[in-house]
Amino acid sequence: DCFQNATNSFYYDVGHCPVKTCAGQQDNGIRCQDAVDNCCGISKTEEREIQCSGYTLPTKVATECSCQRCTETQSIVRGRVSASDNGEPMRFGHVYMGNRRVSMTGYKGTFTLHVPQDTERLVLTFVDRLQKFVNTTKVLPFNKKGSAVFHEIKMLRWKEPITLEAMETNIIPLGDMAGEDPVAELEIPSKSFYRQNGEPYTGKVKASVTFLDPRNISTATAAQSDLNFINDEGDIFPLRTYGMFSVDFTDEATSESLNVGKVKVHLDSTQVKMPEHLPMMKLWSLNPGTGLWEEEGDFKFESQRRNRREDRTFLVGNMEIRERRLFNLDVPESRRCFIKVRAYRSQRFLPSEQMQGVVVSVINLEPRTGFSSNPRAWGRFDSVITGPNGACLPAFCDDQSPDAYSAYVLASLAGEELEAVESSPKFNPNAIGVPQPYLNKLKYRRTDHEDPQVKKTAFQISMAKPRPNSAEESNGPIYAFENLQACEEVPPSAAHFRFYQIEGDRYDYNTVPFNEDDPMSWTEDYLAWWPKPMEFRACYIKVKIMGPLEVNVRSRNMGGTHRQTVGKLYGIRDVKSTRDRDQPNVSAACLEFKCSGMLYDQDRVDRTLVKVIPQGSCHRVSVNSMLHEYLVNHLPLPVNNDTSEYTMLAPLDPLGHNYGIYTVTDQDPRTAKEIALGRCFDGTSDGSSRVMKSNVGVALTFNCIERQKPSVAQNRCQ
């Protein structure tokens, strides 16, 4: 209800300073650089009034920029480490960056680490101290501007060990897909094992060989590293995998690790469905320090007779196993494109509601001949993070055959999967974000296209490389590899694929503008919602609604006790209540309010004056007794004569679920809000839920009746 005639839109220009470093003032010291980093930032603001329907909103507009000390930021990576088969957490495991331990997983497999400032490529190795899971090296994208990114880390279990005789030739199959031949075999000649000191070993060998079979689509997320190597020109280049295997050979008696001098790898050529890949096939091993693959050797063709009737051609390679490393059967693949993807806060798909920090992943699939929706195997797994203009996701593509490769794309924020736009029963190119006829060529299908019971959190497309002379294919959503810059800079009006958050409508308004995805945009101001950068405190109150409809609930947050802010607006928060799954006519809302506490100058506290206002015909029926007692004992106590709302001076203490208040402090604002919101939904001070539990941990309860529906004539007048 704040349409601006001046801009003919719902936008108001509040100004901005470029996010870049600058040279500070010279002093008497002889130095080549500043002692502290300086950044361009807002040095002067002006208060303006935004005209709305029947009221005004205050805002602060940037009018001057200057070179000042940079706002301190920190890039944070959080995640959860679990088994790829059943989600069992890796408890109390170690996280390494190179040879240095940087974090440890908790009981639920969660971890947190701060990324060192000069990091360009974050390579982490996850080590299970209980030896249930294969050590896993991942290259994780992170937000270099600061703020937190959440990653789900999937790990393979070690295969049950088998016993080998060191003095005999041993054959170990790689791949155990039901009804399929193995992808390859390891052949270990007799007398090949030796101890760490070089002494030959002749006893029994305990062998565990774990194979990541790309014919099993569900294993793609457990793929290690980002499947890249450095080519002869020194450039990072992608690989397409035909399988990865981890080997662990130990002395059965003493558990001492054993080396193997000569190992042959027999790769079944019938498993390689792209004939052009056969002569390029190589054997690789992973360097866990760099996360890059290093060439171990080539393959050569060899014909072998399996039985009287069947001659088969195998690719045979030789290798030596000197340490517990991960090996890979791969080919370099140069046919690459980029997919333009954006993530939104709702199904309105407004450019202003784009979300940053979303992890978007793609699994490159090799379709089965004639059945593009039923892939034969996956070949590569990539992840990128959305920025202010979405993300460009690398994927294999082909200009000769549109169905040579397909891509399976999914997105998540803080571990929560986002939803893709539907393809059935409605197929709406405007909603999907890609016009016809290109959309038909790409064969867009959401995962529930054929079965409504399947999750709606991913989509699959054919990777048809855009034709350079085709006008309808020149504006996205697929871009040739050499057009990365165009992909990164296109406006939201250009074709792109979309994900959105499933949560109900919410609206945030701050008097002092701040982009939660960019901590550098923080401004020193008494009315800043977050008064202290790097210490973001999120507060929520749980409101229960008794009535047939979901209701929008608003918090209006003003200065309460500080002389600089009293009576002035910090901001507004609106959220729609979430219906209870088990009870009819009951819903609840977890509503953010501005926490009380010190303002930016750290001089004195302000107890925020918070009004909680359900937007409807509502009547307050109860207040949590513990919350009421706390507020009575911490005066002043605002007057609450109007039963259609509730007013309080927000508590200074971080109260818990017994009061219906949820408070979390973190170095990243989004993380603080996500954790507090999860606790509020759950109604506990240490749990988390995406399902609203409306009977526990409630602060306020309102009765809301359904308003009488206006007549047809009234509707026409409106």
From TrEMBL:
Its main location: secreted. The keyword rRNA-binding does not apply. GO terms for cellular component: extracellular space. Residues 506-704 form the Cartilage intermediate layer protein 1/2 C-terminal domain. Residues 1-57 form the Cartilage intermediate layer protein 1/2 domain. Residues 72-159, 336-503 form the Cartilage intermediate layer protein 1/2 beta-sandwich domain. It holds the Pfam family CILP_5th. InterPro entries: CILP-1/2_8th, CILP-1/2_b-sand_dom2, CILP-1/2_C, CILP-1/2_dom, CILP1/CILP2. It is found in: Secreted, Extracellular space, Extracellular matrix. Keywords: Extracellular matrix, Glycoprotein, Secreted. This is Cartilage intermediate layer protein 1.
